[in-house]
Fold this sequence. Notes:
140 residues; Aspartate Aminotransferase, domain 1; 2 domains; 5 strands; 36% helix; globular; disordered C terminus
Amino acid sequence: xxxxxxxxxxxxxxxxxxxxxxxxxxxxxxxxxxxxxxxxxxxxxxxxxxxxxxxxxxxxxxxxxxxxxxxxxxxxxxxxxxxxxxxxxxxxxxxxxxxxxxxxxxxxxxxxxxxxxxxxxxxxxxxxxxxxxxxxxxxx
Length: 140
């Protein structure tokens, strides 16, 4: 049986992931810190986790081609838009995949805007024309 890797810190876990997934994990890290600043970062079961009072709340799992962001008590969350996956008793997750370089690089070069890598680029451009860049970035 293959043993899971052990990491001394969330930073060590992050450094060991592929560069495309690192970008997604960094964004999730900022998101969690903004939404729930009281959560602590940890590594449990070989994955990055956010904990409260030594109890795991959320996790990030890095796989080839995608990052899974999940909630240990996800089955108790309201999910009217059906964003969460999973059929287990407790855990629910969502997956995020990097935009393939073949699609993102021309957009990044042509626009010079970091949010041009998103899959909703045209919607972002319309929003930018209608409102401020900050609002468009937040929605994308």
